[in-house]
Amino acid sequence: MLDLIPAPTTPGEVIAIRPDDYVLSRRRDSAFWRDNQKGESMPHLTAAARTQMDKVKERKVKVLPRLPGNRELINGLCRPAAAVELNLVKTTSGSWRRVAPDDVDQMANHCPLFFRRDSVTAQFECIALVGLAQDETLIEAPEIPVTGGEGETSGITLSPQEETLLEPVKLDIAFSDKSTLLITGLHVVNREKLSGLSARNRRRRTALFQTMQASLQHVSALIEMRNRQLMS
Known about the structure:
A hairpin with a 5-residue loop joins strand 5 and strand 6 (about 180-190). The protein is built from seven helices and six strands; from the N terminus they run αααββαββαββαα. The radius of gyration is 36 Å and the shape is elongated. The protein has helices spanning about 30-35, 45-60, 70-80, 105-110, 160-165, 200-215, 220-230, and strands spanning about 85, 95-100, 115, 125-130, 165-175, 180-190. It is α+β, with helices and mostly antiparallel strands. Helices cover about 30% and strands about 15% of the residues.
């Protein structure tokens, strides 16, 4: 039990102090307590008391940082990983296939179909998305051919008037392991703009655009395939 020390009559003056017991106060409600926090205000402090105070300061310096709590650990585990971007304009045909006019219906049965601008010819072409990473193929079927690289024009291309119907879309995907993927460089037909297309072209392209629209349901199948890979 610490002895009570009467307050000094002069601020900063130490009336009495025991060599082994002392009080360090954080009080700042009077000039005495504010002055008492200064080392030079305690000239009569014994050598033993100063040694103990030095040990206290040394222990404070050596105290390890606070370890993270359970909530912080869980939040760290659940924090999503950095998003990965897959730009299909800048990638080769590893994760997509060029769609030939005669293969539209067969490809649409397995893959989501989009339009992509060729970086060499600058033309829009119809492609099938078969993977969710560079050079990845998640969908494999006899109907899905291995197509050539940039600059080929064997697929479906659009006229300048038809290109005005397109609008860019992004696929922002979150997987079961909390990782995320952003796929860019894709385009789809804006159905509201179809009315501006000539009647002749609208009749010629209606089947293609409807088939491509229906094929977008396969995006969820691609995501499920990737999730199964992550869990295996």
